[in-house]
Specification:
The chain is of the alpha/beta class. Helix content is about 35%, strand content about 25%. It has a six-stranded mixed beta sheet with strand order 5-6-7-3-8-9, sandwiched between helices. Strands 11-12-10-13 form a four-stranded antiparallel beta sheet, covered by helices on one side. Strands 2-1-4 form a three-stranded antiparallel beta sheet, covered by helices on one side. It starts with 15 loop residues before the first helix and ends in an 11-residue tail after the last helix.
Length: about 325
């Protein structure tokens, strides 16, 4: 399947609804006190957050944290027990042409297995007054032109994901919600989704994406909404979120490794020698290591703080993990 990237004939241009979204910073997802129960289970517990245009907002949380339920509440597929959520100041059900304003991928396999990819998209297009030519445009964009007439029920998981993304993009909307969009995709497909999301955000669109792949989210998202057991844990930029982790380490390179290592250990730091001659220090931040090296007249060739989104996520959501395997 040939890769398709933003740009050229397949690039997005804002349509009527999308132009409004691109040019109006009020077009956001707003959740206020959002609460949802299923029997005795409190799936979403008083969530309040904003998703702003012009950036990719990552939606993170352990399994069972309420991410999918929250997205269903945004799309009006479930009704909240309390609170509210709007898109551009209106509930989803009040949008006159939903596909032209909000595109979503919540369950990629919500497709009639006997329909072709083109027929599936055309049925959606007709329901929202979207021109037939747009169907072929999105099929090209997601790389499914060659299989447009094949039955969707025969598609692989990766192809089904691409068709779901095509449906989300069909109305050229200004707001997009993607729930685990890279499931089943190969490395090229994962990179394509990353570039797609960032390209949509750079157009001024509002992009809200959930994923359990922390390394990929660190490359895709600008801002994060992190929940656990249905409750808010953090809402901030990726940089701020990672900086909050106490598991940060510092990569140090110096010609006086032995002297500095001894001093770091004496200061209760932990030193891990690396094969390339550098060392990784934990238990001390970069500023403290730099001050310590200066007091010893030790030259530093590298002093790089190192932290990952995965480490920060694991630390800050540890108490919110509902399903934990035995050690």
């Amino acid at each position: 399947m040939a890769p398709v990237r933003l740009g050229g004939s397949a690039s997005f241009t804002c349509g009527l609804a999308a132009t409004m979204a691109c040019n109006d910073d009020r077009i956001v997802i707003e959740a206020r006190g959002l609460t949802k129960r299923f029997g005795n289970v409190l799936a979403v517990d008083g969530l309040s957050f904003d998703v702003e245009p012009g950036r990719v907002t990552g939606f993170l949380g352990p399994n069972g944290s309420g991410k999918s339920t929250t997205m269903r509440l945004i799309m009006g597929l479930d009704l909240p027990n309390a609170g509210s959520v709007t898109v551009g100041g209106r509930k989803y059900h009040d949008l006159p042409w939903p596909l032209r304003e909000v595109g979503s991928l919540l369950e990629a396999n919500s497709i009639h297995p006997g329909r072709s990819a083109r027929a599936h998209l055309w049925s959606l297009a007709q329901s929202n007054g979207i021109a037939r030519r747009r169907v072929d445009e999105v099929l090209e964009l997601v790389g499914l032109t060659a299989v447009a007439t094949k039955r969707a029920g025969k598609f692989s998981l990766g192809m089904t994901q691409r068709l779901g993304i095509a449906a989300a993009l069909l109305g050229d909307p200004g707001v997009l919600l993607f729930d685990e969009p890279v499931n089943g995709l190969d490395p090229e497909g994962i990179r394509w989704v990353r570039n797609l999301c960032r390209g949509l955000a750079s157009d001024g669109r509002t992009v809200f994406i959930s994923s359990h792949l922390m390394a990929e989210m660190s490359l895709t998202a600008d801002h994060l909404v992190v929940i656990g057991k249905g409750r808010m844990i953090a809402e901030m930029s990726v940089t701020e979120f990672v900086a909050r982790s106490s598991r940060q380490s510092v990569r140090v390179r110096t010609p006086s490794a032995s002297s500095l290592s001894d001093a770091v250990r004496a200061a209760s730091g932990i030193v891990i020698p690396e094969p390339d001659g550098s060392m990784t220090v934990t238990g001390m931040n970069a500023a403290d290591i730099g001050e310590l090296a200066a007091s010893l007249n030790v030259a530093l060739h590298e002093l790089t703080p190192v932290a990952s989104l995965e480490d920060a996520f694991m630390e800050l959501t540890d108490e919110a993990v509902e399903y934990r395997a035995a050690p």
